[in-house]
Amino acid sequence: MIFAIVFGVIILGLVLWFFGAYNGLIRLRNQVQEAWAQIDVELKRRHDLIGNLVETVKGYAQHERGTLDAVTQARAAAMAPGQSPADASRTEAALTQALSRLNVVAEAYPDLKANTNFSALQQELASTEDRIASARRYYNANVKELNTKVESIPTNFIAGPAGVTKAEYFELESPVEREAPKVSFDPNPPAVGQAGPYAGQQLPPAGGPGATSPIQDAPGPWQQPPTQ
116-151 and 2-58 helices cross at what angle (nearest 10)? Predict the structure, then answer.
């Protein structure tokens, strides 16, 4: 009798845990979908603003056809329906790069920069970018929690029957932005592994032969100046 009661309690506990884990996975999946829907709304607003921005620039820089066409094509690719978050990451990164070139072009037209409609569109676009960044952080946080549950034991045994799979992250960083800027003051830098013209030599102090180093000659705060 006692064994049957203990066995029944264990079975009841497992059933309750199963339903709790199942509902938890469904809840996380719905949160991810809702978070992505918010990103999608902001992206559509971004595309509309960029379209209006291109039309405004055309009125002042019509001969910048190559740059304007590049933004238009990138915008069309970003607006393609049925994109996954990974696809949207790539198309939005390409649109951002094209838009940055358009902003460089706009700097050469003072009348365009002084246009109130152009300034208002830029401000609205910057505000939209901030909302996208905020929505992206919320979305990725939910994706991380969902993916952890899907991959972890024992909830991974329930994810399959529940039809819950891992979700994709949404990133807007481009490969170019991930690379550190390379600064070089030598127009003909030596190849990797090749010694430069001063390799193995002590560089002369600034100011030419006979000049003293200002770092060595300058008295520190702990040194007394020579007595006159």
Answer: 160
